[in-house]
Amino acid sequence: MHFQYHPSDHPAGVSMFVADFGARVSCHWRLNINEPLLGEEASATGAQVLPCLTLDLLLTPVSFWSLHTPTIPQSRISKGHSVNGVIKGESSFPSLEEWPMCGEDNHGGAFRFVQDAVQRNLHRYSTSITALKLLLPTVTGYAVRSDIVERRFLTCQLAEQVADFTTPRQHIQAFEYNEDFSFQYALSTAVGAISLKALPGADRGLVERAMFSLEVDIKARLSFPWIVDKPLPRKRLALVDGKSYPEVSTAPLGIYRAAKSLGIELVVIDREGHWTGDAAGDEWCDEFIACDLTLDDGLADRIAAALSSSKGPIHNVTTYSDKLLPDTAKAAEKVGLFTSPAGAMDICHDKQRTRELATPAGFQILTSKGVEDLTRQLASLTSPLEYPLIVKPIIGYSSEGVTRVSSESQLLDAVRINEETFPDIGSLIEPYISGPEVDANFVLMDGELVWGEINDDFPSYAEISRNNAGEHGKMLVPPLPSSQVSAPTPALPQSFAELSTIMPSILPKQEIALLETHLVRTLFELGFTNGVFHLEARVQNSKMEYAMTSSGMELVQSRSETDSAAEPKVFLIEINPRVPGHQETFAVEYTYGIDYFVNHMLAALSPSAREPQNDDDHLALKAVIRSLSHPLPESVQFPTHVVFIPLDRGGTFVSAKLPPEELMQYVPEHLVFMKTGEVCQDPAKDGKWPFVAYFQVVARLTGAEGRSQARTIGELVRDSFEYTME
């Protein structure tokens, strides 16, 4: 019997063996030879070569007997091996439990994967076919990360399970086919495997068609150089602020998972009593060093002292905390480690200095220490302020303290609240700039852009409510029905907290290119050369605007004659020399296959551009960063909608009710941030807008249809999520 839906000139054969739970199983196998890609397949992969072959296994139960039978019938079972359909040889074949563990390289991982897949499938559907693909490397080298296959298949709808069989810095030997081919050899060389979702029944034709589709998916997702010539060097990276325990919060999971997959030894620097200093931390980090992280003038010196006290060499230091970025950079300079310029970090940290860096011509800004100071400045102005204005703390995080005001009384109120909530910081006052807002993320290496993407940041409640009122003579969006966005409570109309982020962006290509050119140039002007950077900006005079459509709020062609005549311009809001928040970082990996946590760590370990660039360590780092900056092709880029639920009132958090399962099946990542009994201040009074929860909605369609699906389901998730305060 041969595969029905594949060419017959590929090596194929059939074997028989006994499963340990009372079934005789027929295993049809076929080795898929890589052929030149043509047409759509070639364009989908960018003509990249797949560095592996796939071995198809179709395992079909052919007979059963009682598990209580004292003996297994037929002690000798035929085993055939064929090439081009010709069966060669015959000998006894052991039971599945008796298969050898396949060598030390993968520690039996491939064997266990096959065994578990067969047993799971037969227990679930006793007559169904177990279908899976083994990935056999065609090049010798090292995997760029030990879980590369699993991470690239997060959105594969055909896969039941995905597994990798490599470890960091494990040498991979290329698979070579010959007439002495055996399962044992294939299992010992496999670097990964994918099992097909179980299909009830034994319709082999249906299974083979699904396997053909899975082969196309594999070529799309893995056709890039993920097996490289040199292993990553063994490095120790200091992490300032170790975050929460990964099993408690999703935020740090990406950080620690990235380090483990790369074989990077983390040295965590955090406050006394942090979980990484206990036994629980042994799995995740190599060393814990206690350090007082209080934000004061001595912080950089304390971090430097902690770095110097490590039990072993530290090759660099990094942090994922906004508040700690400047002092971490200063500490690195103190101990002679490469870092982005501390002065540039200070500019990014200070919204006033950021605005001075990129102030448009004729742009009027004020800074105020408080209400009294602002009152004096207003009295001395030679020309009145033009409203609406934005008020924000000079040093602040997320959307804390950000307010849009339309009159002098509102301006004074906003400054007063910030003066009380953020004492000794001061407020920045600047014109409100309309136009679509975006998040822009870039990966730089040695002063070169190696990857970047733009995603759409939907309007906040503050923008929705003000525009609904027709302020400034322009109504961007009509009132939102509750079926699209949950009706704001009295607090929410003031909130600038994020509501939705959707990727990829659908702004015109010219505006995407303009954003990339302008924002990357700004990073270079600040002296940044290596790292992952998260920027926020708006496109003035964009050819698109947000409006309510029949299917909800969306970017549509601009209806403004003024905007259509003027050239688009980039308005920089802020620069964050770090990865985006974990919600957006996870979303980027689901849509593009790019893991910013990994790229951030690798960039942190890169040497200064002033140092020699041709040493083996640097060449290995550079090769891995380039490899891990290959995005998924558009054919498997599924739009993602990150839905944020901001707190709308103060009180004590009681409980939350998740959306129904028919919606949650589209949500691979979510988190309720609030804990039962947690006391929350009224956000309208203190200007802080914490999130109650977030949901990451991933479409199952691509392109425009996928975006519509992600957006619609995301708003249904928002509508159906409930939480209780008392």
Structure description:
With 726 residues, this protein is an alpha+beta fold. It folds into 4 domains: 1-34 and 50-63 and 107-231, no CATH class; 361-431, ATP-grasp fold, A domain (Dna Ligase, domain 1); 437-479 and 491-629, 2-Layer Sandwich (D-amino Acid Aminotransferase, Chain A, domain 1), CATH 3.30.470; 640-725, Aldehyde Oxidoreductase, domain 3 (Alpha-Beta Complex). 29% of the residues lie in helices and 25% in strands. The protein has 21 helices and 31 strands. The strands form 8 sheets. An 8-stranded antiparallel sheet has the order 25-22-19-20-21-26-30-28, with helices on both faces. Helix 7 (299-308) crosses helix 8 (325-334), helix 8 runs antiparallel to helix 9 and helix 9 crosses helix 10 (351-357). The chain starts with 11 loop residues before the first strand and ends with a strand.
Task: Spell out the blueprint of helices and strands.
Layout: E1 12-19, E2 23-32, H1 39-45, E3 52-64, E4 81-83, E5 86-88, H2 109-124, E6 130-137, E7 142-143, H3 148-152, E8 159-164, H4 183-189, E9 192-196, H5 204-222, E10 227-228, E11 236-240, H6 253-262, E12 265-270, E13 287-290, H7 299-308, E14 316-319, H8 325-334, H9 342-349, H10 351-357, E15 366-368, H11 371-380, E16 389-393, E17 403-405, H12 408-421, E18 427-431, E19 437-445, E20 448-457, H13 461-468, E21 500-503, H14 509-526, E22 531-540, E23 544-549, E24 552-557, H15 561-565, E25 569-576, H16 582-592, H17 596-604, H18 616-627, E26 640-646, E27 651-657, H19 661-664, E28 669-672, E29 679-680, H20 683-686, E30 691-698, H21 703-720, E31 722-725
